[in-house]
Structures
1.
Amino acid sequence: MKKILLIQTGGTIAMDMSEGQRPTLNPKKWTELMYEAIPELSKIAQIKMERLFFEDSSDINKKHWGKLAGFICDKYEDYDGFVILHGTDTMAYTASALSFALQGLDKPVILTGSQVPMSNIRSDARRNLVNAIEMATLPLPEVAICFNDFVYRGNRATKMSIGDFDAFASPNFPPLAEIGLNIEMRNHIRAASNKLEVATDFSDQAFLLKIYPNLNPGFLEQINFGDMRALIIEAFGSGNFPIRGDQNLLPFFKKCIQNDILLIITSQAAYDAVNLSNYESGRKAQELGANSAKDMTTEATLTKIMYLLAKYDSNKKVSTQFNCNLVGEVTE
């Protein structure tokens, strides 16, 4: 029987909603519920539980990603797969970050959680947990999100709904598996590797800017360029932004480039890819030296840059690596 390490990090799945109270993180209640569920889960795998930290996922940051990557590395030879229980709000960020931090996997690292606490009678937690543990026993050498009977590549997933059990989607890449009466594994799962490469550092020298109509470029002059190495622009459509009148952003972007700041353009639209050659603003950004995020999610774009900035001192090297497909995060 496969050995699976179940890693608790907090999130809604671990909250207590018993007796009508407001949802609160309750490690004692969660532990009780888990031990009640273990007899059922033990039919799938031999499970060991570890509580690495216990956070609302809104408080997750690069330190938690590094801790998770290091912990999985330390336990890697002892288990056949890993399941991480995580809050849904930043699950896609963590899954993306771990996909870069744990390269060369030959076993599954599956993230799951729930929209409703496990303590609630109508929770989706049990189904997600059972599915995730079963997926962790299968030949799936990727960091993935298992939610509502779908398994998505972690760096291709994004949260789409606050209240629906079908909370996640993978807009530009098909699911790795679909779970029904049988588990349907797809043929685009990445090949296993026998050389795990682990990174535990992520840089915070990246800034994400969402473009909106009537954005005052004067606000952007307050940004401290000394602390920044990369600026990610969440633009309109295929990479559009204002270039006329008082809202013209080109002077600000030119200033970024002059300050050796990497300029990366992604889209507010979830589906399809950024193509900077389509329209005038994108072409002008290309002329300045901007990079396109292509069809990467914002979560993958941001965590990829954080990973690369921590790994390389040279922004030229970061730019080169950003334009490569490292772990299936972008369509080539």
2.
Amino acid sequence: MKSMTGFAYTEKQTDAYSAAIEIKSYNNRFLEVFINLNARLSPLEPRIRNIICDHCKRGKIEVTIREKKKNPLFSVHVNTGALRAYISAIEQLKSLLPPEICSGQDIPLTTFIQLDGVIEAETMGGDENKAWADIEDVFFDTLQKFESDREREGRHTEQNILSHAVVLEESRDTIVSLMPRIDQSIKENIKLRFAELVNDKIDENRLLTETALLLMKYTIAEELSRLSSHLEEFRAEIGRNMYPGKKLDFISQEINREVNTIGAKTPLIDVSRIVINMKDAVENIREQLRNVE
């Protein structure tokens, strides 16, 4: 079992470059992956996205990679189109000004160098495979830390969930032990009502018939049986599924339905108190499952 929340951060320094990678995640019903890269690494986005999707099934995942070459190669060239446009504009300006203003006015070279877009420089990034080779080891190191963080939190969450499952199982067993009292309580209530209606003259055969019908209506044997089945499936799902969050939430809803029915059908105050504890346990389980992948 893994948590949907996790965090990892790693930095790497070499003689050629520095890199910093951060991976963090939040709860989310579905999988959403957001990747933030600088320009040189942008071709790597599909590759990184596929790796993240192989490791994560639910949650909002944010990956941020910042990488900087320490001695980058530059390409510097003159944008001749921009330069010609500036020269044309300057000549047009001269034609509009009085000759005495423009005579003897030489334009220094530095003026053209400072004009926007005349001199262009760009970092030589290299190909995609070279960019990946630079960050691959630090990326997988960060991913491993991220997975370890989610697994650690997942183990803690699993222990918490199973502790509440134990409460449900023990409560079920207690209710099963109270079944004779529950049946007796129903019979006594029926007998009392009959006595009030017929002035203590009770037809025993009719009483037995009505008792049997009402016991069928109010018995919780089926609910207890289904509850036991759901609890067994709940534990089995944790053991066999690496990503049990959605399935466990569905099973929890079924458990909650049976608990509510038991509470509604049972007249004993002792059972009502147990049902309240069971509802609280189910609610705690469902709260924890919101953080499980």
3.
Amino acid sequence: MRVRAFALSALCATAAHAQVPTSAPPPHDSGLPAPAVWERGVSRPFVAATLELGWTYVRPELAVGFGRPFHRWMGLDLKPLVTTTGAGFYGGLRGSVPFLDLRAGVRHFEPFEHTLLREAEHHQRAELDTPSGPEPEPYSIESELSGSIAVPGGGPFWLAGIYYVSNVQQGFHLYEESLKVIIDPPWVFRLRAGYAWRFGPGDAVSLGVAEEIIENPGRPGYVIRAGVIGRVAITEHLDAQLSLLPVIHSPDSIGLAGADFGHLGVRWRWATAGAKRRRR
């Protein structure tokens, strides 16, 4: 039996089905710099874990590498992806230094509800709500480079991604569950840019605006989304995140199914301890 039944049962124990369409949360951060707590200590081999509980998804993450976790490190990134609409995984290599992050890996996601769509210049939301095509089993080879620039009180940030989507039958389009766009594989390009302000005690609150454009050479037109992102540091290891970018322009009319609600929940981070930096 396929992994779907198990993943769905596990998810039902943690979240109720929401009315707003949801998808696999993108396997990247929103572009905001990590809390200062992770700058402490010295570089060392480590194992780190992240658990993100969102509105309609659960996203655990395991990282094994060398450096200061979540700050300056390189290693292996593993992420199961579980939502109310499907389940899958992501695995790859990742390197991070202050204000710059690079990852590359493979993602696979099997939806519970959506199927492949017959090729068309324009797709409607009803096509997603009434599945009739073959079941999708796509694999995505992808790479993302993100960064930010620190200035007093905030700073700009950006993300650029390249995705190669395979294992999709010819003559069909795919609703890409992580990017939340309908594509004609294989190539997809993404660019996001924005500005975030930091304020509050210890700059615990980050709030910003962002705009992104997604280009799929196999289809005419492009997708533009814009909205807000934010984060509130609750403790040194716990924060709350949001990422809400509705569609501004698209060749399709799929409503909220095309919006980016990639983050809407709380995130807990942990890592094996290392030797503390000596005071001079």
4.
Amino acid sequence: MSTVAPMTPRQHRAHGKVILLGEHSVVYGHPALAGALADGVIVDATAGRGLLRIPQWDVVIDPTVDSDATLARAYAEIRARAVAPAVDLTLTFNLPTGAGLGSSAAMAVAVGRALGLEGAMLADAAMASETVIHGTPSGLDHTVSMAGGFGLFTRSGGLASLKAAPLPLVIGHTGKARDTKGRVARVAQLLAERSDETRGRFAAIEALVQRGAGAVARGSYGELGAAMTENQRHLEALDVSCPEIERMCAIARDAGAFGAKLTGGGGGGCVIAVGNDRPVADAWRAAGYEVFSATVSA
């Protein structure tokens, strides 16, 4: 009697991301400067019946069981766009989650790849998953997750790759989960209530994005840091910062960083800093924050 050899685990990966400049204004058509992190999400596919396991969260999603849970609905959106093979998926996060580092987009991209999606179909599935989780995503996160490297992103034009030397960053976690959906809603409220002021900030942020892109291309970390710090002032005025973020930015500047700002949706999550990596990391750790180093590169 012949036997079928067990399926060899297949591994599928996707990048996390950082937004160096331009979050929130990017939702309204302005460009953002972003980069892919080497770390992200790994999905192992083995023979099975469609289960999605996330051991770090003690979660198992069974697609045959109806569920209103957000993750289950996001997974269903990806499966709906795939000819789902008879596989179970085990997902591992190699970056902080709920931190503004694109973990949900990396999850969607890695899961989609494990289910055989690629190209436009993969992008569509990831966008559908992100919409379930975040409400009104710009599309930046999953686009950078798929492509890697640096780029200028707009909703209408996608990602324009940018050639640049590797950029070292220090990333610190506020200890508070980011609130992308709530902060996006708050910016929409400000746009309705104070349209001219809010649009003026969007325009100022766009100028900083262009300045920052040139600085990255030239390897001018001081100029990039100055643009980041100014961008943070606009984000604070748009009500997407929080006391923890402001404190971390101040500590980084006092430790000699060229610049620091939130990255991602805001309301919590992570702060990124450029310049004087070791003193900044030491200062954040001394203040009780979780810290790690990362490099953005093509």
